[in-house]
Structures are given as structure tokens and as C-alpha cells.
Structures
1.
Amino acid sequence: IFFPCRHDDLKEMLDSNKDSLKLEAMKRIVAMIARGKNASDLFPAVVKNVACKNIEVKKLVYVYLVRYAEEQQDLALLSISTFQRGLKLIRASALRVLSSIRVTIIVPIMMLAIKEAASDMSPYVRKTAAHAIPKLYLDPDQKDQLIEVIEKLLADKTTQLVAGSVVMAFEEVCPERIDLIHKNYRKLCNLLIDVEEWGQVVIINMLTRYARTQFLNPNINESLLEEGGSGDKTFYGSDGNDDDDEDEEDKEKKAEAAALAKRKPYVMDPDHRLLLRNTKPLLQSRNAAVVMAVAQLYFHLAPKAEVGVIAKALVRLLRSHSEVQYVVLQNVATMTIKRRGMFEPYLKSFYIRSTDPTQIKILKLEVLTNLANETNISTILREFQTYIKSVDKDFVAATIQAIGRCATNIGEVRDTCLNGLVQLLSNRDELVVAESVVVIKKLLQMQPEKHSDIIKHMAKLTDNIQPMARASILWLIGEYCEHVPKIAPDVLRKMAKSFTNEEDIVKLQILNLAAKLYLTNSKQTKLLTQYVLNLAKYDQNYDIRDRARFIRQLIVPTEKSGALSKYAKKLFLALKPAPVLESPFKRDHFQLGSLSHLLNAKAGGYQELPDWPEAAPDPSVRNVEVKESVPEWTKCSSREKRKEKKVEKPFYSDSEGESGPTESADSSYSSSGSDSASASAESGSGSQSEESEDASDSEEEEEEEDKKKVWKKEFKKLAQGSEEQSSESDERKRARKSKQQKSESESETDGDEESDSESSQSESDDSESEVDVKNKKAVQSKAPSKPVIKETKKEKKEMSLLDLDDEPAPSPQVTPVNSFLSSSLVTDLEGLSLSDSVLSPAISPSGTQKCYELLHRISGEGLSVEYCFSRQPFGPDANMVAVQMHFANSAATDAKNLHMEDVKLQSGMRVTDFPEIELLPAGETTTAVMGIDFCDSTQAANFQTHSRKFFVSIQPPVGELMKPVFMTENEFKKEQ
Amino acid sequence: MIHSLFLINYTGDIFLEKHWKSVINRSVCDYFFEAKEKALEPENVPPILQTPHHYLINIYRGKLFFLAVIQTEVPPLFVIEFLHKVADTLQDYFGDCSEGVIKDNLVTVYEILEEMLDNGFPLATESNVLQEMIRPPTILRSVVNTLTGGSNVGDTLPTGQLSNIPWRRAGVKYTNNEAYFDVIEEIDAILDKSGSTVFAEIQGVIEACVRLTGMPDLTLSFMNPRLLDDVSFHPCVRFKRWESERVLSFIPPDGNFTLMTYHVSSQNLVAIPVYVKQNISFMETGSCGRLDITIGPKQTMGKTVEGLLVTIHMPKAVLSANLTATQGNYTYDLATKVLVWDVGKLNPQKLPNLRGSLSVQSGAPKPEENPSLNIDMKIQQLAISGLKVNRLDMYGEKYKPFKGVKYLTRAGKFQCVLMFTKSVLGSLVPGGLTHPTEGEPCIRADLDGGRLSFPHRLLHGLH
């Protein structure tokens, strides 16, 4: 509280026309605010200075205004006009202060200002606008308008500065409007690495939720695998509720899931892959929050096999500040319950140091306990042994609990643990003894008959032990009084003597013991029991009086006693299930890394992590450019697309990975073979289309999604199947080449303008309308479906139509015909594929095939080489694996004499060269097949190729070293 | 996200509050004070507290609590990292992050906080950017300001905010262009009672001090980058290049910053520079115990171990220590039961030894807990992992900078588990002793010497 005179003094200073005095006054006022002292009565005097020329005074006035405007709304309005004027000149800071003045009357003004700022030239101003959005979200009436602004800012081109803030605004204002994200999804993924740290956290969390609604569970086939290899199941035996749905013991459900999985093999959406790939480098971030965000993303979204990568990064965070450790350990504890294997290699990182704060120690203990299994239990127990000698008693108690849990979980060490705990019973520290008793009680419940001597030993301890432990012992003796018939009555005698001085919890157990003994050994204990019941009758605690009355009625037979007393023995001495010692960190339902998870209670504003959808929603909603909405079986085959993606690369920052969803490992996009192959396959499939038309009609009802996927896959099989090149493919290629080059040059120029690639693509493709796409589809489907006789004519038409792709507008003559044709033809084709799969199931075991890059276009001076394992027998030598190489010459000059030389191989490996390619003209592509015998190893085969000598190496991934074997279904089953 | 921030000192006074949204009464901190009372030690205050209407997230740095109040779901690490960032920034600005310094610069701190968060969401957290907006106080500037009425508030929009490299301010100019890198490695280890390594790893960090004009693009390469097991980088490092070529390529921030941290974990790579031979025993009855500690060099790569400091947390029953050190001084804090022995430089020819008797509270039972022994030390001009910087190249600028690399190894959490010998007789039999470097002649000699010079030990043994 300030005396008025001091305020006068400040007011005087503020009224003076010397800036230095004003500044001094403002500094003192702000210091008051900082100390939490009330300076609100200076408001009028301060607000006058809002128009002060001195920037430092002005800034401090802003600080004051933001703090007190809410309390003095009327006076605050006086300053608004100044800010409105300021919006023209110092846009960002004026908007910031204006929006921070929480006065509802000015909401419309702010709305206008935000809208204007959202389309400002400067990204900094746009960022400020994004920040202002949640501030304005005071009344829900504004929501619709705000969403508009958010939508606009999400579509921002140089988003890396704005992205974090706008996603933050999105999360606060309209987290449910997931449809706003679709079009920006890929852009956000690609920009992620360039966004500032705080924005990264927000975006990753948002994308986690998004992915959960849009993609399929990558572990959906897990049930299938687990069915096959039961070894896997026992390994993860203790994590029974691994994946609630799949891990059910319910066989039926499993079979159903398996059938489902068989029907549509899981193929990861390329966008899903894109997200995983682009977040992975952020595990190396210096910011723990970012690392945690990526970790939870992987945990919730990645296939099981890939989740492991996060373990190392999380372990690294354990070296950070203790608060960070605290949060990370809590999350690790939850993760270890679900996926123990992930952290097992890092077991030692969770060893406890005497200098750790107690809460960290207990969390580490939790993790160690979760990690314990048959193989490492001896190491862990040895560690625990040292912990028991710690000075920190809370920690010792927790260690004993942990030993108990290890003992219940791992049968082999149960006896060892029990013996160890019994030894602790003679410890001098009360707390240690008490805790041991409680744990022993739980352990004994599992196999009481073997351990009557331990019960005897514990009975001796009853006299001098803490109440909780004493209660436990009494319960044990009562429960297993048949195993210790001599001691039990004696214990009751002693307890009866001290009954009045015991704690309530002990009294209840004495009553319990008495009742049980009365039922089993009434001869010896009848009087004792009655004595105890009488004492309890007059106890101060009503619980105890109540219990005594209840027990008396139940066990002492009187003429009035009801039917219940007959069952008294059954009631009291029923077999009780052993308690399950469970980790308190089983918090499945909360998103990891969230506040709610940490508190194990839903915090305000927590967004549930949705379950995976049964069937993936339409992936095409994320397509920004029209081209990508065309399935890759059309003219613009994957090859061409890849080209485009490559060109994009340099526009992203250097840290950007191989961009674009098309290159993902298990996506269906990347895997189609060469141009020629796909082209010829097209004609092949076309020839079959007519006979299958009938079949297709009946299948039309099926989900379109499924069909498309299956279709694509089948198509690829066909593509691989046919190797010879049809005559038409050459011509097509040429046409495509020219188009490709054009698109390249287009995107390059865009790149110079520094706009991001995604948008550049969309710009270049804007000219292409949806109708155009249909045209293409129609043309392709139409062309091959006609007999081969008309080939030449058709080709011409095709080419002209293809050229349309690059024209600004579709030609009006073609459109109606094609749109009419398109729908029926597309379904026809889809039908075809389905029937196809029935006809030729044995061509390749799995439809996906991945192309690997051998030589990049840039490092190869224009020559790019890719290879894929065609999964076909290599003619000349059965032991060799056929490797199909695609050469593409994008340089200006012809490449001559492509061949291999200086092959450096691991011992045992052999290579059959591909025939030398004498000439590869500029802009052309060609394929060659070579054979490599990898000797079943996954060592890389290294060799040099091309006359200019580029050193390359081929490394086979596991699973590509196979040779086709024909066997019947029965044989196959037998082999399994 | 973050609603308010309270800075609270060790004794529980709130000396600064800042609200980014509506004002929250400081009485909300009462929940924190309650938890603080309960926790006894400040390290044990739970970082996250739940109150009926708010959540309190706090960190403890330099005897200060930074307490953030939040109302809705937010990743807790987000808040914790931000609070540490605040502390780091204050440290950057004022060279220290203590109550006194903050109180002296209250207005500047308040302004910094104002810039760091907008509506609870981080706005400008890069030190380089902040310093452009609010200039750190220097004596010269404050003198000039008082004379001319100038200000320490930047009047331009920070350029870093607008560019793709937000961590570097524009228009940097130096007459002496220099780039220094400190490779600092800390050994974290747990040695068991026999001296063998239970757990050891190396935490490395490369601290940089770069004062270069313009927009230099640096490339730092290592002789043996494969050593690095797990790395994390300052955002300026191009991760892609690291992945493909194992070089650090970056446009550095101006001034001091942490370029990268790394981790070397494979046990065989971690050299343990010193060994500890210790023997602490208490009589079964009676009120005294004995202590004998010797430290010697193990794998020091020919460098000298300096700044050796041994800290032992004694059992509660130990009342006082009557010891003699052959080198350095020791202190025993009666209140905290911590014995600190400041050894200094380790001389391999004459190993430092600390021995003597401990008096135990009479009547108290023989202590059972194991005390732990923590070692502090440093070795100049050595990165214990063997990491070596190969070269530093600069692109994008024409001048020739002055470059320098310094190596330093120090003990991180270097802990030895001590174990009381069960009986006094056992400790007198040389074979009964286990020490890490059996077979090293100097130790045997020392052992013998020890017995000779300490007749009272024999007496006890006979007793």
C-alpha cells in the first residue's frame, strides 16, 4: 500500500515534459507491478503518455496498459485510438498490445485489425495476428470469423514463421475442425523442421491427433503375427493389454481380425509415412519438449518395429534438469508397461544414484521394475540390494515394494525374493521391517502352504512392529491359521491383552483373526473370541463396534441366528485371490507427454487421442495438387512423379529429407516398375478388362477405398510380370519426357522465388482441372480396352490428350464424352483388378516393391540409376537375385557404354553383369537386369559402374533375398 | 498456455510476478508453499502440482523457484523447458540468475518476460533476438543513457524474427573475428565397492563462442565422429549433413551458445581416470569408526588430474571426524553429515590419503547404510572419449577468422559405492581388501605404510 503522497510524486513526474522524468516514473511503476503491488490508481496519469514520443516510455506504458486495462475498461478506451493509428505504422507491436487489452467492447475493432494483419506483407505481422486470435476468443460469437482467419493463415505460404502460432490458435479455438488441416497437412510435415521449437511441439501434438483420425493402425496385422509365433507372445507375456483389441484372448475376434487383415493387407498411407519420417530428425532436438513430442508421436503412430528409435532420445533426456527427468521418467514408466523391449538395452541408464532426488529415485525404480524379466532379474535384484542400504527411507520402502512386484511377476525368483525379504524382517529400521511384512503378505498369498515357517517367523514379530505391518501379520495368521495351528491361538491371546491400546487398523484385524480362529478351532479360542468381541463392543470407533456386532451375529450360533451363520466359514475362509501388484503408471487412455497423463486425471482442455479408424478416410483430401489425386496407374506414373519430387528437394531446407510421400518405403506409390513395364502392363490389363466386366458389376458395392488399394497392387504385379516393351511405350515415353522437362523447369523457376514447393506445384497444376484428370483416366482406360488392331490411331489421340495436361484449360470438345465415360470405366477397371487377383494369385508373394537409388541424378552428372529387386528368378543362375536397374539420362548429352567394372565384393559373392548399354541418349531411360549372389547375407555389394566411374553399392534388404518356389497349399502349411 | 509466472526465493518470498493473461492472485502459490514444506528439500518439491483451479509447474534453479501457473492442458515439458529458457536468458543477460540480480534489474526482467511470451505462448526466446529488442545492461551504456537520456530498448524490429535463421542477428560486426570451441566431457560413473565399473558413460558438450562478422557459414568436422553415439544439436546445425557426412554445418548464433551435446556410452570406451581405495569401518560396539581413503590415477592419458574433490555423505550417527590428510584439507559439516576433502592436484608419485577416526554417537547402533562417495575433478586438454576436432572451415565471408579448440574432461556424477567392512579384523587382512588396481606396486607399498604409521588401528584390531 502506498501513501497518496508518493503517488502524487509519480503523477507529477509523469505530467512533466521531460522524458527522463517520465521514464523514471514509469520504471518505478513497472517495478511496482512486477512486485505485485497495486498501481491501478495511476491509470489516468499513465494513459496520457501513450502517445509519448520516447519509445522506451511508450513501451513501459504499454506494459502498464496491458496489466490494468481489464480493471479500468472505460479509461482504457481512451488509448484505443492511438493504437488504431499505430496499426498503420508499427503494426505488429500495436496489434499485440491492442489484442492484449482484454476489453470486450473493442472486440470488433480487434477483429478488423486481425483480419487486416492476417494478409499483411510481413510474416512477423501475420505471426502476431495468429497470436492475437486466441486472445480474441473471449466470446464464442466470434468463432466463425476467427476460424476464417485461421484457415487463411494455415494456407500461408511462408508458414515456417507463422505455423507454430497459427496451429496454437487452431488448437485453442477450433481443435475439432480437422478438415482445415487436410490441405495443409503435407506442408506442415515438410516445414516442421524449420519451425521454431515451441511451434514444433504444438504442431506435432496436433498432427498426432490428426493422424489418429486419418490413417489406419499400422499394427493392425500384429494379431496375425502373434497368432503365428506364440513365442513372441510369451515374451511380452506380462503386457497383456498390449493392444486392447488385438491382444484379446478371444480367439474368435482374433480370427476375425486376421481374416480382415488378410482381406486387405496393411499398406501404410504415404502421408502417414511422411509424418513419421519428417519428425524423426527432431528426436535430436536440444529441446526436451520437442523430443518428448516426437516420442509420443512415434509411440502412438508408428509400427511396433519402429518405435524403438525413441528410446535412445528419451534416455538422453534423463541427463537434463531434474524436472525434465521427472516428466520423462513418468512417460517412460508408462511406455515400459506396454513395450518393455524398447528400453531393455538402456537398463543401466535407470540405475539410481544416491544424489538423485527421492521422486526421481522412485520413478527410476518403477522403470527398473517394469523392465525386469527372467534374463535381467538377477542384475536388477543385485542393484536393489544396494538400494536397500540407502539412507533415504522412503526410497528403501519403495525398493521393497519393487522387489515384491518383481517376485510376483517373475516366478523363478519368487523364493529368492521372499528369503531376502524375510532377512529384512530383522532389520533395525522399523519402516523397512513394516514394508517387508506388507510385501511378504502379498507374496505369501500366492503359495501359503509352502511357507508356514515364514508365517511363524512373522508371528514372532507382532510385538514390536508398526501398526500397518502388525495388521498384515494378523491377517496372514488368520488366513492361514490351519498352517500354524499352535501359534495362532497364542497370538490371539497376546493381542487380546493389548487390544485396547492398538490402532484401529490392528483392532479390525484382531477381530478378523478371532473370527477365523473361532470357526476353525473353537475349542481353544471360544472364550478369547468372546472376550475380544466384548472389548470391541465398547470401542470408541464405530467401525470397530459395527464389525464386532456383525461378526458376533455371524459366527456365534444362537437360536435367532439366520441362515447366514451356516455359511460363516465359507464367508471368512473363502479362498482369496492373490493381489496383483500393478504399476501405478498404467495410464493407457491419456496421450503421452500430456499434463493429463502426468496427473492421471483429465486436465481442462485436454483433447482425447482418438482411436484408429476402422477404415481410412479418403486420403485424397490432403491432395493439394490435382496430379496427386490421380492414382498412379494413369499416365503420370510414379516415375515421373518421383522426378518432380527430386526437383523439389532443394527448395526445402537442407535438412529436409527425401520429400514427398511418394518415396515412402511401404507405400504403394513408389513401387511400380519402369515406365515401359507399366505401360505394357497397362495394355495387358486392358485386354483383360472386357472379360471381367461382368464380374465387376457385382462387386461394385464394396468400399471404394479397398478397391483402389487392391487395384493398385494388382496392377503392380502385372507390371512386374510383363517385361517386354511394347512398341507404343517408346512413343509414350517421349511424350512424357517432354512434359516432364517442362514441369521441371516450371518448378525450378518457382523455387527461385522462394515459395515452398508444395504451393509451387499446386500453382503449376492449377490449370489442370478435375475434369482434365478424368480425361486422362478415361483415355487410358479406354485406350487399352480396345483390341490391339486400332493401336496406332489410338496412340495419336492419346498423345494429343496428354498434351492437354499442360494446357491451361481443357478443350471443350473432349470433356463431355470423357466425363460420361469415366465413371463406368473406372469401376470396370476396378472390377477387373479384383477378378484378376483371383485369376493369378501366384505371381509375386507381396505386391509392394521398393526402388532404391543407386546413383542420384546430381552426383551422377545427369545419369540417375535406380534399382529394385524384381523378385523373379534370375535366368542364368538360380542362386542369384535378379536386380533390375533403371537408367535415366537427364543430362544434355548422351551417355555411352554403361557398364560395370571393378566390382568389389565380399568373399563368396558373385555378380553377373548386365549387358553393356552402348548408348543412352539424353532424356531417355532404359532398364537392365543383373544378377547378384548375395550368399544369403545382407552385406552390401560394391562396384563401380558407368564409364565415368561412379562408385555405387547395392545393399539388399532382408526379405529380398528369395527365390520363387512352387508348392501346393498343403505343402505350404506343412512348411509353416 | 502459460498464464502467470512467479519468482520465489529460497525462503518463500514472491519477489516478481508476471501475468500474460488475466491476473491470478498470488495466493495460488500457497499450494506450492505447502508442498515445499512437506518436501523438506527444494529438490524434492514435485515439479507439477494440481490445485482446484490451476496447475502449478515449477523448476528450481540457482536457489530460486520459477513457478508457472497454467489452467489448461499443455505438455508439461513445454512449460519446464520454457522456464529453464527464462533462467538461461536471465543468466545470459546479467551473468547470473539470482534474486539480487533480478531485483536490481526488475524492469528489464519484466520487459524480457513480456517479449518472451505473448498470451502465454512463446514469442521470442532466442537470446540473440531478445538482445536486439532489449539490450542487456552494461555499465558504459547505463552511464551514457543517464547522460543522454537514451534508452536500452531497441527501436527496430529484430531482423532475426523475419529471416530463416532466427537465431542470428543481422549486421554483426567485429574487428577481431574469432571462433572458439570448448569440447567438454563429463564422466558419469558408478563404481561398486570393489572399484569395478557398474555404469559409465560420457556426456559431451561443445560450447561455442563465435564472434564473426556477417553471415558466416561454418563447417566443423571431427577426426572420429563415429564415437558419438547420441547427439542433439542447436537448431542451427543442419541435421541432414550430419546424417550423411558426419560434419557439423551451421550458421552460428552470435556469441556464446551450446553447439551440440553428445553421448558416448559403450562401456569399453569410457576410461575411468582415477581409482579410489576406501575402507570405512565401525566397531560393533563402542562409539568410533575408522576411515581410510586413497586416491590414485588410473587412465589419465598422461594428463594431470586437477581440482580433485571428494564428498562423502556420512551416516547420521557419525558425530565428528578426526582425520589427517596427506594432501589438501578436509571439512566435516556436522549438520548435513557431509565430509568434503579438497585434494587439489593428483600427484601420481605420492598418492593422497585421508585417514583417521570417526566418532559415533554413543549408544547408537552401528550404522548400516552405505555412505556414498562422490568425486569431482577435471583434466585439462583432454577429451576422455578421444574425440578430436579435425578442422573448421568458413564459407560465405572473406576474412580469416581466428579459430581455437579447447578440451576439458571433468567428473559428472561420479559416484563410488562405499561398503562398510563387516568386522574390524577383516579390514586388516590385506587380502580381504579389494581395490581396483591390484598389482600396482605403489598401492601395496602404501598399504603397508599405512599399517605401520597407524598403530591404533592394530590396537582396535586386537580389541
Note: Chain A touches chain B through 97 residues (CB under 8 Å).
2.
Amino acid sequence: MSWGFLRDLLSGVNKYSTGIGRIWVAIVFMFRLLVYVAAAENIWKYEHDEFECNIKQPGCENVCFDHFFPVSHIRLWALQLIIVSTPSLLVVFHVAYRENREKHNQKPYRNPGKIDGGLLCTYLISLILKTGFEIVFLVLFYKLYNGFKIPRLVKCDIRPCPNTVDCYISKPTEKMIFLYFLLATSCLCIILNLSELSYLIFKHSTKCYLKKYMKKQQ
Amino acid sequence: MDWGTLQDVLGGVNKHSTSIGKIWLTVLFIFRIMILVVAAERVWGDEQQDFVCNTLQPGCRNVCYDHFFPISHIRLWALQLIFVSTPALLVAMHVAYTKHEKKRRMRHGEKIDIEELKNVRFHIRGPLWWTYTSSIFCRLVFEAIFMYVFYYMYDGYQMPRLVKCNAWPCPNTVDCFVSRPTEKTTFTIFMLAVSGICMMLNLAELCYLVLKVCMREPRKTT
């Protein structure tokens, strides 16, 4: 069980997506998932071991690390990737439901895979949820770490540290570069989701309006 | 989830590439991705643990390491490989869009064989030619940008054995020793050489595509 599951899930959803949805999937794969697995994970691998405080007092380093990093950036990043991809499951379930109903001939659909009617609502809800989760995680990052900066040095005075102690974070510049990368790709994904939402709403409103207009004409 | 997914995506594009494109893909996988995963990652694996400074001052090593290696070679190569492979997605999307259009025409009555559609190989002409050429151009630009970034960040392509550091909290100028500098220099030069080969292959492919179009035009007019 690994990221391969997420990859299969997103590939499955790709079939029922719009063009913008497919671009979103490609960006999540290439610039978020692949970068996470191939590069970012290793930067944070030894973050606790390499976190060094200018003190010999046992326990001080542990306590300071825990205070400044309640949840590690890399774990938040992984959670974000999982939670942001999950709303796509709603669409998968709805399509499976439609296909099941078609099979039992209860209500034949013109095109089970096409985004219309109930599936459109599900798709729009999944888009809104995806965008919402992205924003929540970005706000969480910002609140937990006072912005997207990682300092080289933090000053810590929690017991058992005897006084204010200097603690040094490992690879702060590299971590900051990848955090900005995460921020940029998240924002890009939010923009894509909002564009797709607007496009779908506009397309179906025009279709409904034209239908009503044709009916009036008749 | 790892480089295997990239392999699947690029493998799909391979069907519609020119012969030079196929050679480029082979070079990318064997001499860059595989070398990165199998060898280079091990060489850089212990880079901070074995970065040793001639001081007992806590924090000095962290700060000096961060100062001299703002972003590690191995991460820059991973990013380079991802960015250089991404333009191929444009071609994959264009091909998928063309197949989708054909399927749509089939649904509206035009007779098209489904099996043939699955295995069809699109020739690089018309709009696909523009997409393909743009993707090669983007690849070239990304390769050049990354090679420049490497050169600018590390003052060349050689890894020094010793760096002198006087960033706070190091008390004075302190000697810091990089781990495995020769091995790292060897791999850096190797990756640089393979990047160069990939750039030449891309340039050759670009020239070939342009020539192909130029030679087709006079034949059309005559």
C-alpha cells in the first residue's frame, strides 16, 4: 500500500474528467506526488537527528523540536495530497452507481460516463471540496509555521532547557525552496479547480437557457 | 509511486515519437533516471551527516552546510528530470484529444474501427507537429536553465574537498570538509555530459522536424 493506490485512483477518475480536470491530474502527479516522493521526502528524512541545540541538557532538543514542529511539513504535505485527491472518489462512486443501474436496466442512461444531471452535481461538489481542502491546508501551514519561511535558528526556553537555548534547523534553505514549490503548485491547482467550476457552470447554464429558448420558440 | 509512473507516461508518448525521440527517451531512462536512483542517491545519501566542521560549536555545521548547499545536487537533478519530462505530456494530451475527437465522430455515424483507434500511430504533421516541436523546444530551454542554475549555484561543476565558513554561530573562520568530493564530482560531470547529449539529441530532432516540413512544402507546390 503506497502512493500507487492514489495514482490508480486518479487515473480512474481521469476518464470522466473535463480537459481542465485532466490537466489537474497531470499537475498533481508530476509536480506534487512525484516531487514529493523523488525529492522532498529525503530532505526531511533526518530532520530530528540533524536538529541541534547548543546545550548538553538531555531532553532539551526533543522538547524544543516538538515545540517548533508539532506536525512536520512533510507529513502535512502528504496529508494534503491524500485529502485533496479524495473528493474524486465521489465521482467514481457515482459513475459506478450509474453503471450498476444501467446493468440492471432500471433506468437506461444516454451516456453513463457523460457529465450531466446528478453526475454534474457530484462533480461540482467534488471540485468545491478539493478547492476547500487546498485552502484549508495552506492556511494550516501558514498558521502553524508563521508563514512559509523556515529560520536557520530558533530560540527555545522550555523545560528542561535551563535558559534560552539556540537551536539550529537542518537544511532550512532547501526546505523553504520546496515549501514555496508546494505553495505554487497548490495555488495552481486551486486556479484550475475554480476555472473548471466556472466552465462547467457556464456550459450547463447556456445549455439550459438554449433548451428553454427552443421550447418557447416551439 | 516513483519514477515508474513517469516511465508509463513517457512510454505512451514513445509510440508517436520520431526515432531520435525514442533514442532520447532511452538515454533519459538508462543514463539519467536509473543512474540517479541506483547510484547518485547513495553517493549523496549521507551528505549532511558526513559534512564535518573543525569546531565543536553546536549549530555551526548545520549553518555552514545550509550556506554552501542551498539545494542539494540530487534534488536539483530530480527536479530537472521532472521538468524535462513534462513537455512530453503536451504531446500525450494532444494525442488523447485527437483520439477523443475520432471517437466522437464515430458516435455520430462515421465508421471508425475501435481496435484500429487503440493502436493507431499518429504521424507528426499539422497541429501535432506544432505541439511536438514546442515540447522539444521547452525541453531544451529547461535543460539549459538547470545547467545554468547548477553552474551559478556551485561556482562550476567541481565539488571542493574543503570549504571555509564563518557564518554565525561559527566562532571564527572554520574548515568544513565535504564527504566524497571526488565521487560527487565524477557523477556531476557524468550527469552534465548526459544532459549535453540529450540537448544535442533534442536539437537534432528539432532540425529534422523542420527539414521534414520544408521538404514536404516544395513537393506539395510542384
Note: The beta strands of chain B are 52-53, 162-165, 174-177.
